[in-house]
């Protein structure tokens, strides 16, 4: 049998991950609609507090709502557990659907950068449900960099998609971003977009923040939106 070090050379997996895969006596089977995952309990518990309390085989849909724990978002979690990242598929996305597209059907010369954004948003929302701090903070950093650091436009439909988990760090980030850049020529918020009227009607607290000028002057820090230590930011 190949040693973990030798296998790491060819798979790219961390030695600590391979030790779990080759030496962990207890596994958990996680059933999804079209696939099942059999992984070491210790490895899952290391990445998500939820699995530290689960010792039996589970069905993903039995413990999480379908709009948060979509099967494809869970695949991002598995990919992150094994490799510390996930691949950018660059596929066309539908912001009206909670499903994250993983089927690589686009022609090779096409690439939709929205896939990376939606993947990070879906991952951040799932991470809150899983209580997976490292997974969440990795996803949240990508969302922060895309919109805040790189000054990409935040349309109201994407903002609404990101705000579905009330009180989450992701929702707080979107609120701060919109309020802080509403009257700034930063390229992040287009205040003339008619979709914002419906958005403010749905999130009345945000409208109040905007009217009262409760912003952080547009200056945001990614550490404000991390999931935190156990006991913090419980949902």
Output the keywords.
single chain; 235 residues; mainly alpha; 12 helices; disordered C terminus; BTB domain-containing protein
How would you sum up this structure, described in words?
This protein has 12 helices and 3 strands; from the N terminus they run ααββααβαααααααα. By secondary structure, it is mainly alpha-helical. The radius of gyration is 19 Å and the shape is elongated. The protein has helices spanning about 5-10, 15-25, 40-45, 50, 60-65, 70-85, 115-130, 135-150, 155-160, 170-180, 195-200, 205-210; strands spanning about 25-30, 35-40, 60. The longest helix has 17 residues, at about 115-130. The model is unreliable at about 1-10 and about 230-235 (pLDDT under 50). The chain has a domain at about 1-65. This is BTB domain-containing protein.
Concise overview:
With 235 residues, the protein is mainly α.
Itemize the secondary structure elements and their pairings.
Blueprint: H1 4-11, H2 15-23, E1 27-31, E2 36-40, H3 41-47, H4 49-52, E3 58-59, H5 60-63, H6 71-83, H7 114-130, H8 133-149, H9 156-162, H10 169-181, H11 195-202, H12 204-212
Parallel strand pairs: 1-3
Antiparallel strand pairs: 1-2
Helix pairs in contact: 1-2, 6-7, 7-8
Oligomer: single chain
Report helical residue fraction: 40-55%
Weakly predicted, low-confidence segments = 1-10, 230-235
- Separation of termini? 44 Å
What strand line-up does the widest sheet have?
A: 2-1-3
- The fraction of residues in strands falls at 5-15%
Look at the structure and give the mean pLDDT. 82
Instruction: Report the C-alpha radius of gyration, rounded.
Output: 19 Å
Helical segment count: 12
Structural class: mainly alpha
How many β-strands, per DSSP? Answer: 3
Shape: elongated
Order of helices and strands: HHEEHHEHHHHHHHH
